[in-house]
Amino acid sequence: MTDLSLAAAHAVDRYLVDALIGADAMLDAAVADQRAAGMPAIEVAPTGGKLLWLLARVSGARRVLEIGTLGGYSTIWLARGIPDEGRVVTIEAEPRHADVARASIDRAGVGERVEIRIGRGAEVLPTLAEEAPFDLVFIDADKESNTVYLDWAARLGRPGTLVVIDNVVRGGRVADAEDENPQVRGVRAGLEMLRDDPRFTATALQTLDAKGWDGIALALVV
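Structure for Putative O-methyltransferase, as requested:
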């Protein structure tokens, strides 16, 4: 048996991507444009993107809320996972990021399914309160605001809405009670909310992929 190491984990990740996902010119172009624009390399891994697609399909989602667009990589995966008449509403705080994302989303052929709302999540989310409920919510923005985003996920969802929260392990730092980094504290507060808030039932999984050691939480609005 191969010993666990970062090199071995990356080799397994490359194998899984080659075996189950393959190359995708539109997604590759979205990442390339994101890099060219000087944006951080914090988009989900290809295996994570395919997972979002599968979750959208399995849940039968027609309305998806994404908090944190970045360069549109995960947005494309989500938009591909819903019907032609479905809608992804994605929130991005940086107008320049939104411009890059819009170009990539349109080039990928899913532009008609995607609406980008520009502004900080805490300011944009209340404006969605009068719209139809969302079937799936993907939270991948500033970790300090995870509890705010989870509260709005419950408010804007319905019983049965699936909530996905990215980056909940932070390289193992989430389990270190002495770590007072604001992002780690925000992740920990979000997980505690999922445990204590009766609106949710949840679990979390560690991941080790192209983005390193991290994890995702999956919650159901009950």
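The two ends are 42 Å apart (CA to CA).
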